[in-house]
Amino acid sequence: MDKIKTIAFDADDTLWMNEPIFTDTRLKFEEILGKYISINENLEKELYSVESRNLKLFGYGIKGFTLSMVESALELTNYAIKGKDIERIILLGKEMLEHPVQVLPDIEEVLDILENHYHLMIITKGDLWDQENKIARSGLMRYFNTVEIVSEKNTATYREVLKRNSINAAEFLMIGNSLKSDVLPVIEMGSQAIHIPFHDTWTHEMIDKSEVNELTYIEMSSVSKLPEYLGV
C-alpha cells in the first residue's frame, strides 16, 4: 500500500452508528400504525417502496425518510390516520435528527495514527445540513483534510471528487460499510477499497456478493486492523 496517499472514509455506519437509528424508528412507526392496521412484514416493504420511489425527489437522509413515513401512513390507513399520529411520526424524524452521534469503536485511535501518514477525507452521501451537523457533532473533523457530501455514490461521482481534489485514482483508497456505494464504484474506476461490514445494513445498500466476486478488494472485520494492513 506504499503508493496510497489519500484515504477516504464513508461516514454513516463506518465512522459512526446510523442504520440502527432508522431500524428503531421503523419499529416505533409500526407501533403508531398498529392502531389502524395489522402489522406484518408487508408494512416494512411498503415503507421501503415509498422511500425508494421518493429518493429521486428527496434524496438520501432523515428528512426524506420522514416524509416517506407520512406518505406511507396515509396510504396504508386509507387516510384514516389522525393528525395527532401524523404529528408523532414527524416527531420521530426530529428525534432522529437530534440523536447523539455515536462514534464507532476504534475509529479515533485509528485516525490518530493515519492522520500522520495520509491525506484523509470523508466522502458521504445524504442531506447536506444533516451530514454537516453530524460531522461537527462527532468531534472527528480535526482528523480530516477534506469533506465531500454528495447526492449519490457511483463511479462518475468518485471520478469527479478525485478530479476536483487533484487526486490520482491509483493513489486513492476508499473505506466503508457498503459494497454498493463504497467498494464497487471505486474498484470500477481503478482505485482500491476496503469493506468493513456493519451489523445493520439498509436494504437499499445490499447487493449480491456475486456482483463483486471478480473484483479485487479487501474485507476487514474491524477498522482496528487497518493500520497494520497499511504498514503504519
TrEMBL record:
This is Haloacid dehalogenase. Keywords: Hydrolase. Coiled coil: none annotated. It holds the Pfam family Hydrolase. It comes from Roseivirga spongicola. GO terms for molecular function: hydrolase activity. Signal peptide: none annotated. It comes from the Bacteria.
